[in-house]
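Reminder to self: tokens first, then the designed residues, so the page reads top to bottom the way the pipeline ran.
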């Protein structure tokens, strides 16, 4: 291999996407809804979800899709997990603002209708609604020959929270404990690079996984017998964190050993990897000194693609799908509460007042911008 693979060479430039999004936001006009009226925007740092006024409560909205992971699902004709992926990418973002997801709408675009595929998507979305505890309130399907060449799936989630209880990161402080929640796999980010590595390695998605596929604390969605295939690992659905995070937020609001004010920030580790943490505060830093175990598929992808370590943590979740920043005094209580409900949860680091950067235990893995 002449040079290490990275996400940009696979067709996705995270920095360029950030600049494009900034340009889009800069061109948008202000809301026509007057402050204090239903639908008026609520300022929210971080951008994990949008908040709007709604009487004594706030509504939260998030929209996202599955991305190029769908190309692997299409190649294998296995769509059982993609509805879960779509739901997770949306409701997990709502959790980051302290909202409880309550409803979801989907958008399916195809080159031509296929009843069997639509039935599989429906079953997957139904299971996603069960896992996220939300109502599927509607959706849209579109046949777009000439525009869409393969199945595309996206959606929008709606959540709510009491006014004055949004989790924005503004109360983050030096010494806050960072609690990591384990990922179920690659989730739904970095698949352009994943597909490039698989092609470079000369492997098929139906081949037996070339690494130890079993990992404590996660279940695989299987459709073959025997050893798990590479495709089964790659298509394992994104973890939906509503259980236990919604219950954690409710317990905090009810004062079960800790308060909602003790939860200072929640971060969904998606595209951009650990640099997502920088979205929660403009000046504080993040010290990941005790990271969760790296899943075996990430280790194999790095080796097979010759991907630099920093690029891996910039592109993938590396085994940690969500981080909750908690007041240091109540960190043990929150940790114990979570550990009773999810295997593999642990304190992975602390907030530091040492510059706006993410510093990892691995030398050279550091990020100063998202």
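Designed residues (370 positions):
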């Amino acid at each position: 291999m002449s040079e290490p693979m990275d996400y940009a060479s696979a067709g996705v430039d995270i920095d360029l996407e950030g600049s494009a999004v900034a340009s889009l936001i800069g061109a948008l006009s202000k809301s026509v809804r007057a402050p204090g009226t239903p639908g008026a925007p609520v300022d929210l740092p971080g951008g994990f979800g949008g908040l709007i006024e709604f009487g004594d409560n706030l509504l939260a909205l998030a929209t996202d899709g599955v991305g190029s992971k769908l190309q692997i699902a299409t190649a294998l004709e296995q769509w059982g997990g993609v509805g879960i992926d779509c739901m997770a990418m949306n409701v997990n973002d709502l959790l980051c603002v302290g909202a409880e997801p309550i409803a979801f709408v989907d958008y399916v675009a195809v080159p031509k209708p296929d009843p069997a595929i639509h039935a599989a998507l429906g079953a997957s979305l139904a299971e996603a609604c069960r896992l996220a505890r939300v109502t599927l309130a509607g959706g849209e399907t579109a046949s777009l020959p000439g525009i869409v060449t393969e199945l595309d799936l996206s959606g929008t989630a709606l959540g709510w929270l009491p006014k004055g209880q949004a989790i924005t990161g503004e109360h983050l402080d030096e010494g806050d404990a960072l609690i990591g929640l384990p990922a179920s796999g690659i989730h739904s980010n970095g698949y352009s690079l994943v597909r490039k590595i698989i092609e470079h390695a000369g492997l098929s998605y139906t081949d037996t996984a070339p690494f130890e596929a079993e990992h404590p604390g996660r279940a695989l969605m299987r459709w073959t017998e025997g050893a798990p295939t590479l495709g089964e690992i790659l298509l394992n659905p994104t973890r939906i964190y509503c259980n236990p995070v919604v219950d954690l937020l409710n317990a905090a609001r009810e004062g079960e050993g800790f308060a909602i004010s003790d939860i200072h920030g929640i971060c969904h580790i998606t595209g951009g990897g650990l640099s997502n943490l920088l979205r929660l505060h403009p000046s504080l830093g993040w010290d990941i000194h005790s990271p969760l175990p790296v899943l075996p598929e990430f280790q194999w992808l790095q080796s097979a693609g010759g991907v630099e370590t920093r690029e891996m943590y910039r592109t993938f979740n590396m085994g940690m799908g969500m981080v909750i920043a908690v007041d240091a005094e109540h960190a043990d209580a929150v940790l114990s509460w979570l550990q009773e409900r999810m295997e593999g949860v642990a304190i992975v680091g602390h907030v530091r007042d040492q510059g706006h950067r993410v510093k990892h235990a691995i030398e050279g893995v550091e990020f100063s911008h998202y």
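The longest strand covers residues 100-110.
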